[in-house]
Design brief:
nine-stranded mixed sheet, alpha+beta, four-stranded antiparallel sheet, 49 helices
């Protein structure tokens, strides 16, 4: 049966005293006792700052702990274990080993099985009624598995023989054996010495416990085992009736049995021979048990069972080693004890212990053959099994620990057990695991507990003033503190301070060093005293408590559930060795409470409150007992309880009472009263007992000072009570002594030999009692005086000095705190307060000092209070005079308030008079209220006067309203307040309207604003929002006038002016229709400018649109441009649009200013380019000598691949700029048609759109009603381009130039035909090449592109040596004219066809530029190598991504789009790089050539 999960009991009360309450421990404990004793235990948390230092000398602290086996502590578990011990002993003495079988994979509970069978009527009744299924059901086994039959089998085989022997049924037929001369009647069997449990040393490494051997599961014997085992067949174990367990019952391993065959069998126990009777003589023999235990685990099966084999041999004391029986002379001496027959000798058995003989078939149950082991008769078996069990107690460990070594052991055990650090184990988990282990039979967990360590020997955890060492100031403070456990038991209010002896554990604290699971069992303190426990440090200690009201119920429940333990140990609960699950107790109605005591907390147990608990881990605690006055009745009842249990007393309760009664003046009054009651009961009982002694005829007596005798010499021989008042002794028996409760149990001597030993006579006891009564009744006398003084009504009153004298008397006689004393203190305090108050009133009246005033009602109440005081005060007359003066002033004030209209001067005089009075008169508020009303009405009338109303602000009106609310209201004030509120509401409403209009959330037209302003002007209040609205309306009208002025002007307005007006109009909170028109115009202008920027400006250009459109007329600007390229558009290098034309912002607004500036800039630009050419020409001449000269846009020195700009003649790196690529063109021997003209990015600043595109922009510009500087600049640029185009066309229309152009066209056609023929031959030879090379080219598109590019480069290189020139001749004047026009055309940021025509003519007139063309080819080769290297890297990355699954193939179009994005924008003369050509494209190109 699985134990139910542990449910924690409710928590006990927890108290947290203040510092004031914490000062007196016994007083605070008495205060909380009514609440706390209902739970039996309570916990007290000291104030946070109360932290006593740990005073134990850690290095010298050594102790030996106790050993605790958890499952032996619990009462019900111990009963089961004791039962298993007995039944195991029963089978052991018969030569068998008890092996408990498993049922449903759990060990069978033999005790529960036996108990249920007994409750159901016994074995025979259950078998007869077939109720084994009910037995299985009561044991909580599942139904339907035939478990009842299995339980019956186990019961018959294991339990029933033991029960049969226990009941003595098998001894019913035994007859008395004849006695021999050397024998005695009922000879007692004395077993071999069995070590007590306390003296057994625990094994160093024991994970199973001492019961592990007998708790091994018993395997069920199979049919094969029964067939092969002769013992099983002989015993017929499966027959009807009970069976006897023998050696062969356990099914053993076949291999083990096979090995055992080599061992010789033991001889039988007895060999009976027919010998003559006179030779019969039995020699004593000694039986030795030699156990050779061999254990093996079975391979097949879930649970491996340990099997043991035993071999038993008998050995004589004589020299020979073989056991034999001497021949006997007379066989009749060997008779069966059951049938009393002596025949059939070979079937007789002799008992190993008593030598009685039995036939094997006369036994119950009968034996099939003579056993081969030592055999005991049924009588000896019963005697052995019925021996009383040894008393249970804790063993003492053999190892001595220090605190450090014990802590290491404890922490290691806990962390290993729970498989986690000790500080992380929850207390709830430890608690549930503890109760599971305690209630478990098959799990043995052993822990150690350093309990009951004497602090007097090892030192207390609290600082002590014992002179052993000097204490620090902090330690001295804690050494005298009442909560120090060395001080608490001997406080003046404690009863134990009257005991001189140092009682260890009661007056002297005990120390406790615990580890996890270490336990203190259910118990109550000695003499039912209080106990207090303080946890110095370490992990918590879990407590369980039962209130004293349920103490007898707990005892009855434990006796009911475990009667076997209390039968052998009636005082079991006083031994601190037994625990029981709180859930079991709670199920029987026992109230149980719990708590977790943490470090720095106290736990208090109350008289006769059972408590127990365990430790959560390694900790150090200290505990001691103490007794207060309320304990004395419980202590007397405890002595009576001890007398019934015959338990020794720790001290004599009678001696303690008499010792306190002997010195009543030292007693606290409350303690004296309680001692008097106890003494009275004790004297009356003593009189009764001594009278019974006289009635018996005992008259002899002598005085005895019992307190001088040791306790063991004055204990009652019967009940073990320590005697003090009297005892009965015998002259003839000096060691005999009994208390007067057991006078019949002294001795068997005649009563005339008995005499009384007494401490006090019956006359002395009343004297002591009277002293206590006087001490206790002195309080009553004093109380009567106080009551008479405090309750006087009509009689003469006492003085204040007489009241204080009564208070002093209570302090002198140390009367306890009580209600009457508190009333006296309160009365004295009240009188003193009244005297002080009266004196303050009189003194204030005379000196006019400022003080808190009393009201008239309070003054009357104070006067009534003086009348009711229990004593007389002299200031009463002065208080009466003051009250009369106040009442007369009230009459004057009431008359003044009735005058209408009020006279302010009279009112102010009365107010001044009332302010000098020490009493607060209620009419004063009415007087002040009327004055405030008049003043406020005057202020309101002056404020709202017509002359000053325009200067009144809302704040002034609100202040008037607030002050009016504080004025006492009447009809006139309320009317004025209503008028003021109405005006204020109207003003705030118009202010709110104006504020809404000003916030511009929803703009309103000017007419609406004007209407609001006009209506608000009628309000006679200063309204700031209305004034702001007026200003806004004026600004809106001025803005509209500006717009009309601009729109009605002679010229279109400038964009900057419109943008400024739009910005101002948007900020105004007025809705204006003109604003929308202006926003549309500005938006259209910005749209045109953006379109023009996209047309002219390159991507990421460092120029503005106006810079591109205007001529460049500064030589230094070339260096600025280069810096722009180098420093990536540094803001400090930019010029504004205004500076680009040399005009100011105002000049740009003037019509025609841009055109004039543009015309001036054209001429300057020509001069600038000529200067720049001259400068760059000198630069090229000195470049070979000066290596530090900077070139290109990058500013680096020159290299071999430098290109010269055709316009500015500056040099640039081919890898830094965009240049015309020859491989992307159609080539022929007409090299002048090749596009290899190079313009640097500093000269070619824009995209240079065609003229038609520019004209479309101009058309869109004409539609804009806005003037733009860029638009005017674009018009100038267009006019300049058209003018230049006309000049160029005129120059090209000359006859000389026309003839040259025709000649160039004819020559180009001839050269093209020659190239075509060569390509046809080349194509035929190409077709005859190996087809494998073509297949390789088809496999990779990259390889195709590379071969095509190689072919183009090869073609260009093959053309260069064949180029001829000059092919035409041109006159010098015409050439100069064309060159000048060519330069001017290159300066234009417009793409014109005439420029290219002039360039062809000029190129054909000169030799071919082979070096320049060769540079282009070399630059392309270097770029191609670089791109291939990048392509390989990208291919490797692509392969790695594809292996990881991250790469997604990109289409050819996406690659081309990306590539086109990455390339910088080139000029209009350079074509974009074409995509790689396919083979068909190559063929078509060749055919075209």
């Amino acid at each position: 049966m699985e134990p139910e999960e542990f449910v924690p009991p409710p928590e006990c009360p927890v108290f947290e005293p203040t510092w004031e309450e914490f000062e007196d421990p016994l007083e605070y404990i008495a205060k909380i006792r009514p609440i706390a004793e209902k739970a039996g235990i309570c916990k007290i948390r000291p104030p946070v700052d109360w932290q006593p230092p740990f005073a134990v000398e850690v290095d010298n602290f050594r102790f030996t702990p106790r050993i605790q086996r958890l499952n032996e502590l619990e009462a019900e578990t111990r009963v089961k274990l004791n039962y298993l011990d007995q039944i195991a002993r029963f089978w052991e003495i018969q030569g068998s080993t008890l092996k408990i079988p498993n049922v449903e994979r759990k060990m069978l509970d033999l005790f529960t099985l036996s108990k249920i069978v007994t409750e159901e009527g016994g074995y025979e009744v259950i078998c007869k009624d077939r109720r084994w299924a009910r037995v299985a059901q009561r044991m909580c086994y599942p139904s339907g598995k035939n478990i009842g039959s299995l339980l019956r089998s186990h019961y018959e085989r294991i339990v029933y023989p033991y029960e049969l022997y226990q009941s003595g049924a098998n001894l019913a037929q035994c007859k008395a054996r004849p006695l021999y001369d050397s024998e005695e009647i009922d000879k007692e069997y004395k077993p071999h010495s069995i070590p007590l449990r306390q003296s057994v040393q625990p094994p160093k490494t024991n994970s199973y416990g001492r019961r592990a051997k007998r708790l091994q599961a018993d395997p069920e014997p199979s049919e094969e085992d029964i067939e092969k085992n002769p013992e099983l067949r002989k015993l017929q174990i499966y027959g009807a009736g009970p069976k006897m367990m023998g050696l062969g019952l356990v099914a053993k391993d076949r291999n083990l049995r096979r090995r055992d065959k080599d061992i010789p069998e033991c001889p039988p126990t007895l060999i009976v021979k027919d010998e003559p009777m006179e030779d019969i003589r039995l020699e004593p023999c000694t039986v030795e048990f030699c156990y050779d235990i061999k254990e093996e685990e079975e391979e097949n099966g879930e649970n491996s069972n340990t099997v043991s084999t035993k071999s038993t041999r008998l050995r004589r004391n004589a020299a020979n080693s073989q056991f034999t029986r001497k021949p006997v002379a007379k066989a009749e001496f060997f008779v069966c004890r059951i049938c009393a027959r002596s025949d059939d000798d070979d079937k007789l058995l002799a008992c190993f212990v008593c030598n009685d003989s039995y036939r094997i078939y006369c036994l119950l149950p009968p034996l099939p053959e003579i056993p081969r082991t030592v055999w005991r008769c049924p009588k000896c078996v019963v005697e052995e099994c019925k021996k009383p069990p040894e008393a249970f107690g804790f063993e003492q460990a053999t190892r001595e620990y220090t605190l450090q070594s014990f802590g290491e052991m404890a922490d290691t055990f806990k962390s290993d057990y729970f498989s986690m650090p000790v500080h992380m184990v929850p207390t709830e988990l430890v608690e549930k695991e503890f109760w599971r282990l305690v209630c478990s039979i098959d799990e043995d967990v052993t822990v150690e507990y350093g309990a009951d360590i004497h602090s007097k020997e090892f030192g207390s955890g609290f600082p002590m003033k014992n002179g052993k060492r000097k204490l620090t100031p902090e330690e001295e403070e804690y050494a005298i503190c009442g909560w120090n456990l060395n001080v608490l038991p001997v406080l003046d209010q404690s009863v134990l301070c009257h005991i001189n002896a140092d009682i260890s554990g009661m007056k002297v604290p005990w120390l406790y060093v615990g580890m996890v699971f270490s336990t203190f069992c259910w118990h109550i303190e000695d003499h039912w005293s209080y106990s207090i426990n303080y946890l110095h440090w370490g992990e918590p200690k879990t407590w369980y408590g039962v209130p004293s009201s349920a103490a007898e119920l707990l005892e009855d429940v434990m006796k009911k559930l475990t009667p076997e333990l209390f039968d052998s140990q009636p005082d079991l609960l006083h031994q601190l060795v037994t625990i029981m699950n709180p859930n079991i107790l709670m199920s029987y109605g026992v109230p149980v409470f719990r708590t977790n005591q943490c470090a720095g907390e106290f736990v208090i147990t109350f008289p006769r409150a059972y408590h127990s608990g365990f430790n959560q881990g390694y900790n150090f605690a200290e505990a001691v007992n103490f007794c207060t006055a309320d304990w004395l009745p419980a202590g007397r009842r405890c002595i009576d309880h001890y007398r019934r249990l015959r338990r020794y007393c720790v001290f004599s309760h009678e001696e303690l009472i008499c010792k306190m009664a002997a010195n009543p003046e030292r007693l606290d009054l409350n303690l004296a009263a309680v001692v008097h009651k106890e003494m009275l009961v004790m004297v009356q009982e003593e009189r009764k007992l001594r009278k019974a002694l006289l009635d018996k005829g005992i008259t002899e007596a002598e005085r005895e000072a019992f307190e001088l005798l040791p306790d063991d010499e004055r204990q009652c021989n019967k009940c073990k009570t320590t005697c003090f008042l009297s005892a009965l002794a015998c002259y003839d028996c000096p060691d005999a002594l009994v208390c007067l409760y057991h006078i019949d149990d002294l001795c068997k001597c005649p009563s005339n030999r008995h005499y009384l030993r007494y401490r006090y006579t019956l006359d002395e006891l009343p004297t002591m009692l009277h002293k206590l009564k006087v001490r206790a009744e002195s309080f009553d006398i004093w109380a009567n005086k106080v009551k008479f003084t405090l309750e006087v009504i009509d009689g003469p009153k006492k003085t204040l000095e007489q009241l204080k004298a009564l208070q002093w008397e209570a302090a002198e006689k140390k009367f306890p705190e009580n209600d009457l004393l508190q009333q006296l203190r309160n009365a004295i305090t009240e009188v003193e307060k009244c005297v002080s108050e009266a004196q303050s009133l009189v003194c204030t009246k005379k000196s006019s000092r400022v003080r808190s005033k009393l009201t008239v009602e309070q003054l009357k109440t104070f006067l009534d209070q003086i009348h009711t005081l229990p004593c007389i005060i002299h200031q009463e007359k002065d208080v009466k005079d003051l009250l009369e003066s106040v009442e007369s002033f009230q009459l004057l004030a009431q008359e003044a308030l009735k005058v209408s209209p009020p006279n302010i001067s009279d009112l102010r005089d009365l107010i001044e008079q009332g302010d000098h009075m020490v009493i607060d008169v209620p009419e004063m508020n009415q007087l002040r209220g009327q004055v405030q009303q008049a003043l406020w009405l005057n202020e309101m009338r002056e404020t709202l006067a017509t002359s000053s109303s325009r200067h009144v602000t809302l704040d002034v009106m609100r202040r008037l309203m607030e002050s009016g609310c504080n004025v006492t209201q009447n009809l006139e004030v309320e009317k004025a307040m209503a008028e003021l509120q109405e005006l204020l509401t109207i003003s705030e409403r118009w202010e709110e309207k104006a504020q809404i209009c000003l916030e511009a959330r929803q703009k309103h037209p000017p007419a609406t604003l004007e209407a609001i302003i006009k209506e608000a002007e009628t309000i006679p209040v200063f309204l700031p929002n209305i004034l702001s609205l007026k200003e806004t309306l004026l600004k809106a009208r001025a803005w509209i006038a500006d717009v009309e002025e601009i729109q009605n002007g002679d010229h279109y307005p400038c964009l900057d002016d419109l943008e400024g007006l739009v910005a101002v109009g948007r900020d105004l909170p007025v809705r204006m229709d003109e604003l929308h028109h202006l926003e549309v115009q500005v938006m259209a202008a910005h749209s045109w400018r953006e379109k023009a920027c996209k047309t002219f400006l390159k991507k990421n250009s460092c120029y503005t649109l106006l810079e591109v459109l205007c001529p460049c007329n500064n030589v230094d600007s070339h260096n600025i441009k280069r810096a722009r390229w180098k420093k990536e558009k540094d803001c400090s290098l930019f010029k504004s649009d205004i500076e680009s034309l040399g005009l100011s912002a105002q000049d740009l607004r003037e019509p025609g200013s841009v055109s004039l500036a543009f015309k001036e800039g054209e001429q300057k630009e020509k001069e600038y380019i000529l200067q720049l050419r001259e400068l760059n020409a000198s630069k090229s001449q000195t470049s070979q000598r000066n290596e530090q000269q900077q070139y290109c846009v990058c500013g680096q020195p020159s290299n071999d691949l430098m290109l010269q700009c055709d316009l500015c003649k500056d040099w640039f790196h081919g890898t830094c700029v965009t240049y015309p690529k020859l491989t992307n063109q159609k080539h022929s021997l007409a090299w002048w048609d090749w596009d290899f003209r190079f313009l640097c990015p500093l000269c070619m600043r824009s995209r240079r759109p065609r003229l038609a595109t520019i004209l479309a922009l101009l058309v869109a510009l004409q539609k804009l009603p806005v003037r733009l500087p860029e638009g005017e600049a674009l018009q100038c640029l267009t006019e300049r381009a058209i003018t230049w185009q006309d000049r160029a066309r005129q120059a090209l229309a000359v006859d000389e130039v026309t003839v040259l152009l025709e000649k160039l066209n004819e020559l180009g056609q001839q050269l093209q035909n020659e190239v075509t023929k060569e390509l046809v031959v080349l194509k035929e030879s190409t077709r005859n090449e190996d087809s494998s090379q073509e297949s390789k080219q088809d496999e990779s598109s990259v390889a195709d592109a590379g071969s095509l590019e190689t072919t183009d480069n090869h073609m260009i290189n093959s053309y260069l040596p064949r180029l001829k020139g000059a092919v035409i001749e041109i006159s010098e004047s015409t050439q100069q004219q064309l060159e000048e026009l060519m330069m001017e055309g290159d300066l234009l940021e417009v793409n014109l066809d005439e420029t290219h025509t002039m360039w062809r003519i000029l190129q054909a007139a000169g030799p071919p530029p082979l070096k320049t063309l060769q540079k282009f080819v070399e630059i392309e080769k270097s770029e191609r190598k670089l791109s291939k290297a990048k392509g390989k890297d990208s291919e490797k990355k692509r392969k790695r991504k594809s292996e990881r699954g991250d790469y997604t193939p990109t289409s050819q179009e996406e690659l081309e789009t990306k590539k086109s994005r990455d390339e910088p924008a080139s000029d209009s003369c350079v074509k974009k790089k074409a995509p790689p050509a396919t083979e068909n494209q190559v063929e078509s190109k060749e055919e075209h050539l």
